[in-house]
Amino acid sequence: MTNYTPKKKYYIPTNIEDKLSKDFLQGITRNFEMLDEIEGGSAKTIKADTTGQTRIQDFIQAAFNHANDGDTLILPPGRYWLEKNTKLDDFPNNDQPCLLLRGKKRVHLIGYGAVLFTRTHAQGILELQLCEDCIIEGIKFEGYGDFPEIDPVTGYGEKGTTAGGYPTSGFWNYRKNNSFDTSARARNDGKPFGLFGGGFIGNVGSGVLVHRACKNIIFRACESSGFNYSGFAVGHLGDYLPTDLQYEDNADITFIECNAHDNYSSNYVFSAVERPRVINSISDRAGHPQASKYHTYVDPGYGINSLGTLFPKANDLLITGCTLRGNKRKAIDGHAGGGLIATDNFISDSMVGGVFYKWTNVEQYTKDCIVANNKILNCGYAKNPLGAIYIGGVQRQTKVNQETNAIVTNNHVKNCFGTDGVIFIGSFDRLIVDGNIIHGVPDELDIANTIFVPYVIYAGYSIPTQPNFSGNVSNNVIEVDHPRIAGGILVRNLQDGSVQGNTIKTPNPLTLYGLRLWNCMDVGAVGNTIKMGSEGVPLHAETTGAVAHNTLVGGNAAFQPLQGQPIVFSLVANNGNGSIQFKSGQSYVSLVESNPKGLEVKLQNVSPGIHPMVKITQTGENGLIADGHTIDYLYSHQVAHASVIIGIKPTKESDHVPFANMTHGGLEIEIII
Questions:
Q1: How many CB atoms within 10 Å of residue 112?
Q2: Single pTM value for the model
């Protein structure tokens, strides 16, 4: 925010001190002590009925209209009943709120102890348009507080589809403040929508809506609850459809120490904004109060939402130091956005998932994601849960279109579960998953209701034609003992990267794998510690990268993948019938025999992911001799986990000679697996 030099101090006006509540006075003392006059501004008290018995939006709106740049407006403690103000102009969709701040600069609105409320469903209270450098502080916003019923099977309600609830998907979040009469529309059972709480079902109302080119706005210590769309909203899809109003985007909208709770769709929602911030704030119980883990869809119920849209998105959303509890669907959700930073938050008890940030399509992208230092507790126990953290680019797209740039580090994840893992990262380019602690499954997980069997951490989709690039999965600690866990870590289709330093403890006898690399290239698996019970494969590595120095305990695999194990033996020619003497690794060799290309060493008990390294040395006074000619060219003709073929030629340009044709000399062969 722009810095201003105070001209003089304004104390709280003495004529209202006797009316101020203790909370109000403490709030002022805590946050201001005294009010600074900004150049050209003054402190004014808004006087209106504080009993909540009469509608007073006109009185407060008059004070807003007459506020000058730099003014401080004070709402004394009390309850203020507000309804839609149809007198407000420049609303082409007739979607007026109760109150409007438009075109104001450096206005400071303070209302500790003031409650602004509406008695109408789907009606929003305060909108800011074309404002700059304003602060809204200490005000509580209350919506109607009740929501239309939800379908007992699907869980859909006012935000519904033809599958259940009210079919509003074609206009949900495009029509606000009871501007669209839906009363005669047909429900899925053929009956009309009717009215609910005096409002139109499927219209949306928010406690606060910031849109239309607002810049540098701070909400501090505000509270918002009971609205069918959001407690605090930035951006509105109805600005683009049904008519594009050509509004500019917003920037630097900040919520500090705010409390949004018990709103239906979301507690905070963002679109058409650069650098929004939610700092040290609370989001509790977003969603329908009757939502259940047994519903087919727990939807909506987003704590903080970066809105999925083809229109302008929320870019570089910062969520830090927040508490998000009991949000029915997800605590943090992003279906589109140009950056999400979620750090140092406490997240608990969301039925579907904790943090979700995934591309919808090429136009609705989610890039540049940091999820770090969060505690995520008891999330992912609905019928189709999505775990603690779910991130991903678009499937079946180009490398450019999966530029995810994701960092998932140092999160403490306790008692979480998801269909695609506790932590899932789909198609990506540039990924770090490091230092996370994951243990337990949700107390409320019902395996009869949630039938999936995932790994704990996934990196990459299962589609072979969907490669992933530059991924590091390291130093994570996993300790989960549950029959519905298929494995510890699964890395799929990764082209380059490393999996190292992880500690995986999955002792349940129904768990299949500890660490698994599938269809990977140039990915090392080094220094991991994997402990399993009596069943399962601790390490299975399909990779051309190094697999070394892993500690494997338990499991019943017929063989364990190796890390740097040498196979060393010498072989005397004697027309292919010479003796073999092993120095090490004999148990990994099933057969050594002559081959049309030279010599084949058939291997056994070697992981499919191992790419052996081969060293060949001739022995004997004159080396290998065949038909009186010396052999001057030896090379690794074919190297795989099951077989090594050594090519033998008199010269590089000559034809191959089978080892059975060698009459003198011998070979010393070293194969590292």
A1: 24
A2: 0.83
